[in-house]
Amino acid sequence: MSSIIQSAITDTTVTSSHHLPTVARSDFPSNFVWGCSTSSFQIEGGADLDGRVPSIWDSFCQQAGKIRDGSNALVACDHYHRWPEDLDIAKQLGMNAYRFSIAWPRIITEIGGAPNQRGLDFYSRLVDGMLERGLQPWATLYHWDLPQYLQDIGGWENRATIDAYLAYADAVTRRLGDRVKNWITHNEPWCTAMHGNWDGMHAPGQKNFKAALQVAHHVMVSHGLAVPMIRANVTDAHVGIALSLHPLRAASQSEEDQEAMQRHDGLRNRWFLDPLFGRGYPLDIQAHCAEFLPEIRLGDLDAIATPVDFLGVNYYFPETIAAAAENPPLHTRLRELAGRERTGFGWEVAPDGMRELLYRITQDYPAVPIYLTENGSSYDDQLEADGSVNDSQRRDYFIRHLDALKRARQQGVDVRGYFAWSLIDNFEWAEGYLRRFGMVYVDFATQARTLKQSGQWFCDFLNRSNK
């Protein structure tokens, strides 16, 4: 087994301009899940190997101006070939779980096609590799890489994609369900719908609010219909969904800004949480967006409300909302307040927002176990001449957010696991390779992996006391 930890940064003394809290693994239960998250399109590469067909993101990358640095993910981190090394790193860090996603274009390569055995074989080997290293597999079925052949007939806007998703999910869970017990149906349906179909920042790049709401509905219906199917295919299945959720602040105390915040909350958070927990779509947003509402068939809302075994929460930052007459249909806009600490991506660093969000979920919705399925930060990391990457800001970010997680648990929030985003630097969607979120630095020219200071801290945190 290769190791990048022994030769990495040895001085893990915490020095920071912030007053850092004290957090230890012993602050959490012994059965707490500690993992890292990745996604197939962002790390795998191998874009034309073993029968894989293009995804909407392959097509998006080919469009001029869509990816900030003009790059693509044809190679990415070459995880398709280097997965043993990457899993070794996760094990050496002290993780006991590994969240990954499965590339739909590797599994079903044409409309109505039979499962591609070479694609299934790859993930079977990957899962075996996790288990050999003591890593509990957490599989995400959909992390945005829709096959292009489905987008050609309308993508998620076309209800036929629900059936295609169920056929894909059936094939995967039948093949891997003897070893994979933890399943996430979708990652961040808000991004699938809104970034992909409203603001056009993500593939397929559409700018149509009505289409976005229809996409969101079909994604959520596919989730609900997949849950019982996965349970039928997988003994002792543990099934949930990962939502991107944000605590919100109004830009001012004015009635206009307060109302704008409520509307934004309705679309950003409640549009997904409410139907998931059996309440249907928020009535205030339905009234405000009446002309854009999706087509909802009989039984759809019951399907979406199929009880889950857990809720995955992806937390990165809070949002500050102001009223805006020029931004229909919600008439809201994000406002960046001066003087706030930010990541290299420009996202506000607000650890207590995590605690606030988790507490709100437990107060507003029925009790369900929660897992932090993503949390992390991007900074402009540099590989130093001595081979180190001194990302003290990311290290501090982890310390402060784990403390917030500890405090959420002390308030009674049933949080059972934490997955750092991400194990390694990767292709960051529309940002290309300009943003680095990893605990491991990747030189994309050579594919060399170098543990960052944040990764060394996480290793020490997990291994200092594993009781």
From TrEMBL:
* E.C. code: 3.2.1.21
Protein name, as recorded: Beta-glucosidase
One of the record's GO molecular function terms: beta-galactosidase activity
Q: Record's superkingdom?
A: Bacteria
Q: Which organism is it from?
A: Undibacterium amnicola
Enzymatic class: hydrolase
What Pfam families does the annotation carry? Answer: Glyco_hydro_1 (PF00232)
- Quickly give the catalysed reaction: Hydrolysis of terminal, non-reducing beta-D-glucosyl residues with release of beta-D-glucose
